Amino acid sequence: MTATDISQRKRFFANGNIYLPHIAVIEKIIDETPGVKTFHFNFKDEKLRKEFGFQSGQFAEYSIFGVGEAPFCISSSPTRRDHLEFAVQQVGKVTNALHRLGPGAEIGCRGPYGNGFPLDFLQGKNLVFVGGGIGLAPLRSLIWNAIDNRDKYENIDIIYGARSPHDLCFKYDLDAWDKDKTINIVTTIDKEDKSWAGRVGFVPKVVEEVAPSASNAVAIVCGPPIMIRFTFPVLAKLGFTPEQMITTLEKRMKCGIGKCGRCNIGNLYVCRDGPVFTYAQIKNFVSSEY
Amino acid sequence: MKNNEIQQRLRQEAKTLLEQGQVEYIVGYETGSLKFTTTPLLTKNKDDTDRLIVNPFIVNNLSVYLTEIKGKVGIVAKGCDSRSVVSLIQDNKIAREDIVIMGIPCPGLIDLKKVELLLSKDRDELGNITRDEDRVVITIDGKGRDFPITEVLFDNCLECQIPTPQEYDILLGEPTTPISGNVSKRTNIKELEATPREERWNFWKEEFSRCIRCYACRNVCPACFCQRCFVEESEPQWILPTPKWQDNLIFQVIRNIHVAGRCTDCGECERVCPMNIPLRSLTRKMYEIVDELFQYKAGMDKNALPLLTAYEPTEAEDFIR
Amino acid sequence: MSGSKIINKKDIGKLLSQWNEEFVILVPSKEGDTTKMAKWDGKDTGFIDWYRNTVQASKTNFFPPMEEMFSFQKDKEGYHIGLASSDKHKQLIFAIRPCDANALAILDVAFKDGYEDPYYLSRRKDTLLIGLGCINPYDSCFCTSLGSSPFDSTNVDIMFTDIGEEFFIEEVTEAGKELVAKTEGLREASKVDEAKASKVKEASYNKVTRKIDTRDIDKKLLACFENKDYWEKVSAKCISCGICTFLCPTCYCFDINDELVRKQGTRFRSWDSCAFPIYTEMPVENPRLEKWRRVRQKVCHKFEFFPMNFGVVACTGCGRCIRLCGVNWDITQAIESVPAII
């Protein structure tokens, strides 16, 4: 991250203090799956609402006052600025509290943090998105971004899986992308299910079957750690180099700005130097720490 | 038997245990990296047994490692430590047949903090500390000074009634008797109890204001064997991770309740506290309460049910009214 | 003339009183059987006799065990956030040891890098560090292995050296020079004083006998990162408490938590430690659940990752982690036993 990047972002600090959240209001809540909700929100401050900018792949720290703070990627696209979105799986104290909120509730939000996807690098390339479960959240920001700038990218392939049909997130997106003739999308579930007529199989296996070409392509992978771990070797077999594989890592984070230490792997901080990494950057640490 | 004889025998026994495959690991003490200190030695290598030592500074209660080692262990245990081992057996945390206890009748250990206070010198500024029965000779700049041993033994050693391991496979040395003699101690429960309630509250408030929540007291304690401590629960969050004195106090009070009937008064919690909080004033008090209410001392009988997990309908109940 | 000054030890009280008019002064202080840098009471200079180093490093003064980040309240219009008013004052830490001053320089880097940390940096601003060299280092000290020494004045403003009845005073920074210039009651140092000071420094340097070899340590650690046998052996006796990290002058990991008491909310930050399993715990998995991974993280962060990022080892050799460890886990032994690169 360069000094300019940081000074750019300083515009969004509350009172110049990086740790202070801005007040935001939840406008709409979508039940994605039994354990996942998407929150649409906007900043309370008129000026910030207009000025706030971010890149696909960046995240923010969200506060439920009195409960705590947790990081989630901004799952909406910067090209669609009517509101901001983030998706939350119910797993702990803060996420449980978030799931109890209704429209109109006030939360805190500070950010954006992290590097985001390398748009310059991706332009003119074939994009292969590989997602699992709620891991589609950061990918969908980029997918919509690419769709809204369709002429800047070549083919768009999406391979997305979940445990069961009920666990597929963003079904409205999946439908929209399915209808979009410029996109190839394959959806899969882990195990056979009566209500599912589509493809069955774990994501890495389906990637192997679909076998997207590595030529002028970049694979963008996000999902549960185990899925990421098994997908990289498959992509490598298909000819993707470590530089052609991108992922966005999830680690326990608190501060979001490379200070508190939790998300440190090697000399990198997932929150500060990531969360978007090429496999080349992290492969030394992947085997043992991720 | 002198320490060096005990030490010699220990090394032989430990080596034999490893050689004959009776245990996979030996857990004992070796010379530490700082003057006078000893350090735990956890090894699978029979050659390492030559490093095992026995001296008046073998402070650690090594039973704390038993729950994390996979495989049979030969462990060096003093009186209090052996009871911690038994207590872990009672709680089904370890199996008796997986442990070979090499018991050491303990004549009391030297508290280096007391030595430092006594001489207004730090540990590394002292020449030698030599114990001879009930005396100790400490040299500074070549000059020796002689003190009664009771001046420098740990409080819990001075109050220890069970210095000889109760449960053992090999006893290194002759059974020993409790230390007698009345000396002033840091843990003075009677004095604390005699102070007015408000004063006592302020005392603990001040003490717990220093706590930095490093959890050394908990992690060094063999009785604190929970996979997940209540302080780490977030739903419900019993106390904040933030070291506010109120939360620190609650942490310690609950910890104390959790180890009631398991605490063998080994004193490790107080010894390791970097903020010098007199934790033993709480744990010792609980130890006495347990004894008084239930006539129970932790880790005396491996077949007994753990005190607070067993309930008899005939038990007196006036304490829970 | 060197510009160095001399003050008699008996006059330290007067000196501090003088400075107290402009600065809040922190000195080595006892607090219930433990020690840290705390506000001077205006009288007691007894620390000159008992002070070797404080249990808590001066990081505590800038990055305390817990601090309020902000408060929050809710009314009809919604949430309001309030920053605690920080009392702006110039402060002076007297008798800080070189290792702890060096540690602050390391923390400065970490807290300034990228996003600036307003809490640490605002406390750190307007702070003068008056160093006091060590004439009696502990047997756990190993500063000389880290390019420093008991009299390293790199990161202090003024350096004091104990030459017996008197202190030998050297100005180091411009701010230090300014303060010395307006301080009354100092006399010019003579050649004899200077010689005395050099002798003390040299003698003290040689008293630091604990040594580690830090040449290529980052490369060696990188090479043995996956050496599980080594790390398991090294970590075996660690009990995963927070003593070494909390009391380390350069460790700066923290946690953030909210508290709500009768509708009055506070967000706190508090020390956290990579030694705790829960530190990296995530709902699905924990990348550092095993003890050897956590010990590896601690060692590598100090001797490999931090140097990779900032070009400096995040250890100043103060020896607290060795001195205060309940099981005598010794980082110098760990570093010395890192396998050589084959």
Task: Describe the structure in your own words.
The complex is a heterotrimer of chains A (290), B (321) and C (342). Chain A contains ten helices and 15 strands. By secondary structure, chain A is α/β, with parallel strands linked by helices. Chain A folds into two domains: 111 residues, Elongation Factor Tu (Ef-tu), domain 3, CATH 2.40.30; 130 residues, Nucleotide-binding domain of ferredoxin-NADP reductase (FNR) module (Rossmann fold). In chain A, a hairpin with a 2-residue loop joins strand 1 and strand 2. Chain B folds into two domains: 266 residues, no CATH class; 41 residues. The model of chain B has no long low-confidence stretch (mean pLDDT 93). A five-stranded mixed sheet of chain B has the order 2-1-3-4-8. In chain B, strands 5-6-7 form a three-stranded antiparallel sheet, with no helix packed on it. Chain B is of the alpha/beta class and 321 residues long. Chain C is globular and about 65 Å long. Chain C has 13 helices and twelve strands. The longest helix of chain C has 20 residues. Chain C has an eight-stranded mixed sheet. A four-stranded antiparallel sheet of chain C has the order 5-4-12-11, with no helix packed on it. Chain C folds into two domains: 203 residues, no CATH class; 120 residues, no CATH class. In chain C, helix 8 crosses helix 11 and helix 9 packs across helix 11. Chain C has 342 residues and is of the alpha+beta class. The chains are: A alpha/beta (290), B alpha/beta (321), C alpha+beta (342). At the A-C interface, strand 13 and helix 10 of A face strand 4, strand 5, strand 11, strand 12 and helix 11 of C.
The portion of residues assigned to helices of chain B is 25-40%
Q: What structural category arises from helix and sheet content of chain B? A: alpha/beta
Instruction: Say how many strands of chain B there are.
Output: 8
> What sequence of helices (H) and strands (E) makes up the elements of chain A?
HEEHEEEHEHEHEHEEHEHEEEHEH
Number of separate strands of chain A: 15
Main pleated sheet of chain A: 7 strands, mixed
Estimated structural class of chain A? alpha/beta
Estimate the global geometry of chain B from the Cα principal axes.
Answer: globular
Helix-strand sequence of chain B: HEEEHEHEEEHEHHHHHH
Mean pLDDT of chain A: 92
Biggest β-sheet: strands ordered side by side in the sheet of chain A: 10-9-8-7-11-12-15
